[in-house]
């Protein structure tokens, strides 16, 4: 696979630094804590680590509000500790990519503080302002976390735009100085030796200059900003410029987080010939269980829809010179076994392995979110006061106070969808504080940490951990997993997900059962006999085309050579 870019046969592991490992026992995970656990990640076999934001931040949105892009947040560590992490990782053959959050800064960033002083400030035009009166917002946009996207500054007689919290003012990408400053920040980190970026909400950086009102969706009183902010008129110009000035000069990987992006829009970012990004995170599979009120809902996804959207992205990227990212979860999402599998104990381990297989055997770069390799479940805290996340908190109050929705529905939705489900501290053992820290962590542990923890998976050869280790190893050994053409089978089957990967080395057959009862699946006519590559149950080592039985949440992969 010499001519294939390294990030195409890599597996990325996402570390949420605050929740990974606390080295100095102040309750907050930190950079030195990650260095301590590199051996664990090496054992799993991952190639790249993506770190959520580690820069100086007031932490209104857990680091997605940055006030100094060039310094490490002292709560997470020092510049030297980051240097040690980077060097140690590199020595072990593991790359590190950082989060680049440049749709907005923190309101505590010196640029914004200066911009607030007067319209003549050098930095005023670094942000997006509209003249107006105190109670006439420039348009009807509602921010991601609730309330208007516009905040009024009396002294200036102007509103500034913030698609997220009011402490996260949006940068004005129309201003070439903003872009140059962003490129300088990127070069600063790349020159320090990092291996790429995950770019936060990069699909939102170019706004429609008309700032049109948005449609009222999900029962909200305010309009959606997506039509006027997602995939805006200049986003591709900006990324092509960024690529020319920065990205093309380094051997790195880039993944853009692109809310509100269809596969058609997706290829515009990720088609290599367009020289923008390597891949994007789309949200089509994350939206399948959105309900009447949006993300926070008790709706369950439908497998037929899941197959449709994932297949659409597989095909779109293949038809162009594009590349997919593959993920079941991240720090904003529920735990995959709860959301797409079965978390009640009976099939937790089986469904975690099945989900891993269905994802990792597709074409693209898989991302494992910390704890996924343990088969972690959602947290389900007792009370809303146990939740810490701004999105969860604001949604709860919108549902109860504004929509007058029943508390049990609201809490059920929080259990299923709160971002905190992903942010519970990594359970390293069944000891006090799950071995994460010697003191109470900044956010509560998942109550099931005595059962689901690293010590347990490492001592059980049938654990999700060792299964993931094998999935990663297969990717490294078999080029067909990187290059084979994806072909969905039996698209209308609502219980099983089966597909082929066709390449010069043969054909791979991949099957997963999403049901709690056994299912018959058919292996189509393929030459020769199939050799088993992996399975989560006792399936035959060699098989011919024809019907096979998959037990509840069973999964199997055969290679026909
Ligand atoms: O998230 C972007 C985003 O679109 C989120 O609104 C996401 O869809 C939502 O959280 C799902 O519930 C990114 C980061 O990943 C998130 O943690 C930040 O809060 C957000 O940007 C602002 O920087
Ligand atoms: Ca700490």
From TrEMBL:
Residues 14-423 form the Glycosyl hydrolase family 13 catalytic domain. The keyword Phosphoprotein does not apply. InterPro entries: GH, GH13_cat_dom, Glyco_hydro_b, O16G_dom_2. Transmembrane segments: none annotated. Keywords: Glycosidase, Hydrolase. GO terms for biological process: oligosaccharide catabolic process. Belongs to the glycosyl hydrolase 13 family. This is Glucohydrolase. It comes from Companilactobacillus allii.
């Amino acid at each position: 696979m010499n001519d294939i870019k390294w990030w195409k046969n890599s597996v990325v592991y996402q570390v949420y630094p605050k929740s990974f490992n606390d080295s100095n026992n102040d309750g907050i995970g930190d950079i030195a804590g990650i260095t301590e656990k590199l051996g664990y990640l090496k054992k799993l076999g991952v190639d790249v680590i993506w770190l959520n934001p580690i820069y100086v931040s007031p932490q209104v949105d857990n680091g997605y509000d940055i006030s100094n892009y060039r310094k490490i947040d002292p709560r997470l560590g020092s510049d030297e500790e980051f240097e040690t992490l980077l060097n140690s990782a590199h020595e072990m053959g593991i790359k590190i990519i950082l989060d680049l959050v440049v749709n907005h800064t923190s309101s505590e960033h010196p640029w914004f503080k200066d911009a607030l002083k007067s319209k003549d400030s050098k930095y005023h035009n670094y942000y997006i302002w509209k003249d107006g009166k105190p109670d006439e917002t420039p348009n009807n946009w509602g921010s991601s976390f609730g309330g208007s996207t516009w905040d009024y500054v009396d002294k200036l007689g102007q509103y500034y735009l913030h698609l997220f919290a009011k402490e996260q003012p949006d940068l004005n990408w129309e201003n070439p100085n903003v872009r140059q400053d962003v490129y300088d920040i990127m070069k600063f980190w790349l020159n320090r030796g990092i291996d790429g970026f995950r770019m936060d909400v990069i699909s939102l950086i170019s706004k429609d200059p008309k700032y049109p009102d948005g449609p009222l969706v999900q029962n909200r009183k305010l309009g959606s900003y997506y039509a006027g902010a997602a995939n805006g008129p200049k986003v591709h110009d900006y990324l092509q410029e960024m690529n020319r000035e920065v990205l093309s000069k380094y051997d790195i990987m880039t993944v853009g987080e692109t809310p509100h992006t269809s596969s058609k829009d997706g290829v515009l970012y990720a088609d290599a010939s367009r020289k923008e990004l390597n891949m994007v995170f789309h949200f089509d599979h994350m939206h399948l269980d959105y309900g009447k009120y949006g993300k926070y809902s008790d709706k369950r996804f439908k497998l037929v829809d899941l197959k449709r959207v994932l297949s659409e992205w597989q095909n779109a990227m293949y038809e162009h010179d594009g590349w997919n990212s593959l993920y079941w979860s991240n720090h904003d999402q529920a735990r995959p076994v709860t959301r797409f599998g079965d978390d009640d104990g009976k099939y937790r381990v089986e469904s975690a392995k099945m989900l891993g297989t269905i994802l990792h055997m597709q074409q693209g770069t898989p991302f494992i979110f910390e704890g996924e390799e343990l088969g972690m479940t959602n947290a389900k805290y007792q009370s809303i006061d146990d939740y810490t996340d701004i999105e969860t908190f604001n949604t709860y109050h919108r549902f109860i106070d504004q929509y007058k929705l029943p508390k049990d529905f609201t809490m059920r939705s929080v259990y299923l969808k709160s971002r905190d489900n992903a942010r519970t501290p990594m359970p390293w053992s069944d000891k006090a504080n799950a071995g994460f820290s010697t003191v109470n962590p900044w956010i509560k542990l998942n109550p099931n940490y005595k059962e689901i923890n690293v010590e347990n998976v490492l001592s059980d050869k049938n654990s999700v951990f060792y299964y993931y280790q094998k999935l990663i190893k297969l990717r490294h050994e078999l080029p067909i997993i990187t290059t084979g053409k994806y072909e969905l089978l039996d698209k209308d089957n609502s219980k099983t997900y089966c597909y082929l990967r066709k390449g010069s080395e043969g054909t791979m057959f991949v099957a997963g059962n999403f049901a709690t009862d056994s299912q018959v699946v058919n292996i189509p006519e393929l030459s020769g006999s199939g050799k088993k590559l992996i399975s989560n149950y006792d399936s035959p080592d060699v098989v011919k085309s024809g019907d096979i039985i998959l037990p509840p949440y069973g999964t199997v992969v055969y290679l026909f050579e």
